Amino acid sequence: MTGLFIFQEVNFSAALKHHLHHLSKCRIFIYNWLMSKLKLTGDHFYKFFQCPHWIWYDIYGEAKKRREAPPLLEMIYKGKVAQANQTLGQHKKFEEVKPELLRDLDEGFLATLELMKKGKNIYHGVLMSENWVGMPDLLEARPGKSDLGDWYYVVYDVKSSLDLSDEYKFQLIFYSLILERLQGVRPKEAYVIDAEGTERAFAIDDYIDQFHLTRQQIEKILDGEKPAPFLKSGCKRTPWYSLCISETEGCDDVSLIYKISQADQRRLYEVGVKTAHDMADADVNQLQAKLEDWPFDKIIRFSNQAKCLISQEPKILRKPNFPDVAHEIYFDIESDPTRDIDYLLGFVIKSKTSPEEVKYEYFFANDKSEEPEMWRKFLDFLAGLDNFVIYHYAFYERQVFDRLALRYGAPTTLINKFKDNTIDLHLKLVDSAVLPLYFYGLKDVAGYLGYKWDNPEAGGAESVVWYNDWLDKKDLPDRQAGDAILKKILKYNEDDVRATLLIKEWLSSQKPSKHKESLDE
Fold it and tell me: Domain YprB ribonuclease H-like spans what residues (predicted)?
């Protein structure tokens, strides 16, 4: 019996060793997989500012719930320029790391380091230090002392705009701190450059404390800490938007209220307001006493918005005033920031003499070379207008008008004519009404009012995807595919201007109820 027991024990021990060996191999595989997942990258800073849950869901979410989007959409959202190497090549000399080396980050890093040791300017290099990995658009060598020699490196990213929001600044700071580890010198500045070669710099040390606070938050998410529920417009850009909506709605979080920031959310949590119902039920005067540094109008706006979400009924604060003119023009622009082109200026005209005849018209640029002619046609159209007003939704149309006027010129009289006769319906709406919506974008508002787009999934970014697809197919022998895409682009733009018209007409018909409605209520 004893001998048998020993025999069985030995066999059990061998089996256990065999099992542990395979378990150890599995653990090593899982560990290596997690480490590859948990590298801190520049992309994490962009994702964090759009929606912190994006990072968490990418690692821990169910893949089947992820919505896939064309790569071009990501470029648009990130403000990137198509063929950035060509843009840089017009303004700076550089050597490009071979694309095939970028498939393996270690190989890409070694190739980058070799070029850095030679003092070369580098396009799409890979920077690595421990678990930090960055891929700036350009590493530029500058005269000075570093561990590399008589030069040191600074970082550039190529963007469609020189606006420096935090997600762009923090990505560049991240790259610069990796550089500091590699070359022994921290660059004082980092840069963005646009398609025309205009540069904008910022001082890294001015934002270093904010950067590290953000980095620590991201690292907690990478380690598995799920961010608190929060809904923001950036969530729409993520592949996990449906989960953001459902989870935030599930706990009725106060961030469902339009324009509440994460800082606002934290302050409201501190005073016991954690849900939309809490905000709707709160006494605004008591809240003002607890939030003395907040304008009272801000508290009233949040209160009104929460009550509308609960009741699912709009609230009209005041009757909006609109000018009485002979011609109303509803205007919308489509642009491709990755190619730096404004390719479509579309509008409908509603005239007093024939209010039922609202025909869609447009000016279109087949490519960048036709943009100046499109602009000239629009100026001619503007010059011929009299007794009119141009309605647009949000600030973008005025921004593009200023950009095209600066780029191609325009008579001062026409610039003033445009600016003096345009009305932003988004501003009119938020000043006059509160709607039971999480967002006040054109599609959100017009969709709530009953407008239906021909393509319900379409948006401005999708129009850019179509435009790029059209550019690829418009010169094919069989032009039917290209024509069908162009028709889709134009129909989407027409829907946008007709949706703008619907919002204006709805606003025109509204007035406060007999019971006094005011901001002080």
Answer: 329-507
Q: Per-residue b/e over 171-184, b at no fewer than 16 CB within 10 Å?
A: bbbbbbbbbbebbe
State the DSSP H helix or E strand holding residue 5, giving kind and residue range, or none if neither.
Answer: helix 2-37
Answer whether residue 326 shows pLDDT above 60: yes
Query: 327-336 and 388-392: which strand pairing?
Result: parallel
Neighbours of 128 (CB within 10 A): 20
CB 260 within 8 A of CB 274: no
* 7 alpha-carbon distance from chain centroid: 67
DSSP character for 104?
S
Structure-model confidence comparison of residues 489 and 20, the more confident one? 489
Determine the average pLDDT of the residues in 460-468: 89
Go through the chain and tell me how many residues it has.
521
**Mean pLDDT rounded to a whole number for the chain:** 89
Strand order across the beta sheet in which 40-41 lies: 40-41, 132-134, 127-129
| Domains in the chain: ranges and CATH | 41-223 (no CATH), 252-313 (1.10.150), 327-509 (3.30.420)
Question: Whose CA is closest to 326, among 378, 376, 388, 368?
Answer: 388
